[in-house]
Specification:
- The structure is a single chain.
- By secondary structure, this protein is mainly β.
- The protein contains 1 helix and 5 strands; from the N terminus they run E-H-E-E-E-E.
- A hairpin with a 7-residue loop joins strand 3 and strand 4.
- It is flat and about 45 Å long.
Length: 88
């Protein structure tokens, strides 16, 4: 199974690029995910952590525990992410 982000527009792509512009690196780890399927739609709640290194300032990696909420839809055999939100 392949999951992709549905950017949908240049504006969304520009916002996404801006969000990552200040990072040297980032990795996400999902420890557990609860997925609810409703036909061609789904929601997922995942618990885990984000590890990142900023481009400016201290180069020490920072780690935050987070909960992500995803809304997805199925297109053919692929699942596309419509929205994603992270909370502390």
């Amino acid at each position: 199974m392949e999951i992709q982000v549905d950017l949908g527009s240049q504006e969304k792509l520009h916002l996404l690029a801006g969000a990552f512009d200040g990072l040297q690196s980032q990795s996400l780890t999902f420890d557990a995910c609860d997925v609810n399927l409703r036909g061609e739609a789904a929601t997922a709640t995942c618990r885990g952590s984000a590890r990142y290194v900023p481009k400016v300032g201290s180069r020490d990696p920072r780690v935050e525990s987070l909960v992500w909420n995803f809304k997805l839809h199925k297109t053919g055999s692929d699942w596309l992410i419509d929205s994603a939100r992270a909370e502390r």
